[in-house]
Protein 1
Amino acid sequence: MSVELKQRAAAVKRLLEAKFGKGKVSVRAEQRGTAYGWINCWITGVSMQQLRLREPALIREIEAAGIELSYRYGDASEKYPAITFQPERW
């Protein structure tokens, strides 16, 4: 995994742990193929519905902290950040 990608994932984890509590966040950065640059976050104790409602605010906080995210583009050139938030991993 590239050092830059690892550092971004670690920075996202620190920010989310400050918000949700230490030990309640797991973060993984993807480094293979078309998923390269994606950051996947699993958070314990939060439902999927709560995460969907908070997702825009979380992304704004990550960007405001100066953490650079990768982006993907939709059909109409819509720009989406390449980050996912999930309830705890099984």
Protein 2
Amino acid sequence: MCYIDDLTSDKDIEKCRDGATVVYLSPQWGKDLTPLLGALLFCDLDKSVVYTGAGLVCKFDKSKTEKRQELMELIEDVYRKVDMFRKSNPWNY
């Protein structure tokens, strides 16, 4: 079993072997999107994924770690754009 508590750090992810059961608990309770990002970044989506609003359990897919940095940059860009939109349209929220 492998435990990941930080999506941005290689420290936990490097300890996981391909096919291992991964447990990821979001450090930010109430942020339902964070575990879904974890599934995108390191889970084998051809296998079962158990998701709750606070975390997930899945099988680790080592091949996804190669693209993790690229995906993190894309995700951060989306967050920046959403934040800019919210600030420019305060009456929409």
Protein 3
Amino acid sequence: MSRRKLAWIVVALVGLLSAAGLVWSVFGPEKLTLTAAGLQSRLNQQLPRTVREVTIERVDVALADNRLALRIAMLARVLQQPITATVSPAVTFAVFTTAP
């Protein structure tokens, strides 16, 4: 297969993906609805999880006034001593909708 043919295949694939993205943005969902219970159940299915000697034990989710609050309880071993930390960032998110 020549380089020219490969280049045309790549251009065709990029064009196809662009067209699919355009159709999705025009006809796809306009609003995403999240509930605290739904997010909590998805997180509970994944926990506890250990990554590089850090174990995430519990995540609590709270939604209020377009703000997402996560409280994360984790356990790590540093220098053979257990360390427990609680992290609670607040994330603001915006909901974008298109007018009919």
Protein 4
Amino acid sequence: MDDHNNMNFTYLCDGDENAEKVVVFGSTSSSVGGTPLERSLRTSLFFGTEVAPHDSRYGYGSTVTETSFVGPKGTLQISNEQDVPAP
């Protein structure tokens, strides 16, 4: 992209085997529900990119949704959302 006013911001999050979804909040997409991150293949790494002005300043964090199965036969699904501040 040949745009001298904007740049790409890429977010990375290292989840775990139970991480199902990661959304970044506090970014340019916060007003529309945040920036959803995609899982990289079958790894624990999530990533997402957005375009913002060069002089942008943001404080951001993420919400990680973890899902696991419990019970005698693993038939009960439990999901938990956790807010994670930026490092």
